[in-house]
Amino acid sequence: MNFLTITGEAFHALRVNRLRTLLTMLGMIIGVAAVVLMLSIGQGAQIHINNTIASMGSHLLLVLPGATSSGGLRFGSGTVKTLTVGDAQAIAKLSSIEAAAPVISGIAQLNHGANNWSTTITGTTPDYFSVGNWFIESGAIFSEVDLRSATRVAVLGKVTAENLFGNEDPTGKIFRIANKPFLVVGVLTAKGQSLSGRDQDDNVLIPLTTAQRQILGNQFPGSIGHMLVQGKSADRMEEAETEITRLLRQRHRISDRKENDFTVRNLTAIASVASTTAKVMAWMLGAIASISLLVGGIGIMNIMLVSVTERTREIGIRMAVGASHRAILMQFLLEAMMICILGGVTGAVLGISGAWMISQIVDMPIVITFSMIGLAFTFVAIIGIFFGFYPANKAASLKPVEALRYE
Amino acid sequence: MTNQGCTPDQPLIRVENLYKTYQLEGQANQPICHQVLFDINLEIHSGEFIAIMGQSGSGKSTLMNILGCLDAPTSGNYWLAGRNVASLANNELAHVRNCSIGFVFQGFNLLKRITALDNVAIPLLYAGMNRKESRKRALTLLQQTGLGQFTLHYPNQLSGGQQQRVAISRALINQPQLILADEPTGNLDTQTSHEIMTLFKQLNENQGISIILVTHEDDIASYANRLIRLKDGRIIQDKK
To answer: Disulfide engineering: A156 pairs with which of A114, A161, B89, B184, CB 3.0-4.6 Å?
Structure first.
């Protein structure tokens, strides 16, 4: 019996036993699809979080005012405006610091034509753009000159721009913040949500001086809300924290026994916690996937064992009419291989398309790892082929009369 | 067909001092030896039509299985067409079953999930023929056997007599020298039984195929021209 005929015989056997073939394949399909899906989601989530972290800017410190106490009563951070523009300028000169951007912010009503929108107004310096990792989609950022002369210019976040101007390019147009006309000089590239889920693109950036004097004026001239500080490098973050603390205590004339009237927070540390969490989640999904792979494998094993054993009599008949040991083994091996290949490919396709659908729904990147697909595929294929082959080999090794007697 | 080493005066089958013992698993791991065949000596020539008779358990089916190379004797010698069967390797035995012997069973033993046509064609496939040619030959044979309109039926859609005809066609497809029929009429009614036996008789007389038939019905055995009677594993009568 030549190879082609045996292949035909194997294919025919699979076709006439549709239900059995389908059930066997189901184990493979579920196993492979689960692995592909889970790992894609896990790795996608990890990449998503890492991207978000990168979009925040690298090696950042947040310096917040406040944390003051008065007669044993402690207030939350930011309750006292203790930080000034001068502090920011002094911090920027420290050896471990790349740049420092003072920020004041508040909410104001914006309008342009018939549209109006309420959002956060951030008054800051041009350094803020590089520190916070902001990029310009169109136009330009405001300049040092704008800062010095408190010009009414603004850079719009993507969401704010869409809400005020719709689809048209706002660059060069005039809109109003709290009824005062401002010129749009640029629009920021969208960043998406922050780790805490806040929409980072719903904002307006204006020069710090303009904000202080014309929009968000407060009772302490020169004071700022907080500052965003960028360290020189990741391994000098602790040094930067110490230097800032020492400098600010000195500038604020805080005696040794008193507490700081400010807080320094390392944003990179927070980010690394989030990244670790994502990694743990990816591992957990991988573990769940391997369990379903194992269950699928056991399913394949069961049905293969039962279905091949059930065909012992058929093997006997085939031997009685002249099938050699080799021809029978070849047929069963081919049947098992066809099931494995068909099931594995279907599983992989289902897994990939499932992952793709999820990425479309939740707007998350999906990573398809072909090595993992290969591993899952190989695992189920080995199980399927072994348990399709082993009982067939056992039956074909019997004397034909024994195989024929099998009920 | 494969007449190598088979001269006219040489017997088709020669059996000498053949014994068959089954070892059954007994209590307390004490194997129970069950002697089925004792010292069988037999010579069968080409063109003979033989009926083997005997009560249940007399060893007729075991003898048939050994003659058909489906089972091996415990001791003794068996020459088929001049070749010592004990010396043949497994794939050579498969070749003998494929080309030199045709089997007909009491329970038909057709493959349930394929059509009558494909059932008949299977031995040709194992002989190395391609599917298309083998189906063509199987179709011709089925038409000769009077089953031309049932070729695409599955075995369970056919009557017992029709199934047995399909099985006989399968046995004939490789033009064997010898047909072994183990109670071929056991599952059939009287009229169908006689139709099947007439078919065997024609095959024997017109095509010179040797036939060995196991039965325990006298009127079925009367179609044969030699009768061998077995009792408790021994030949007690052998008459022409």
So the answer is: A161
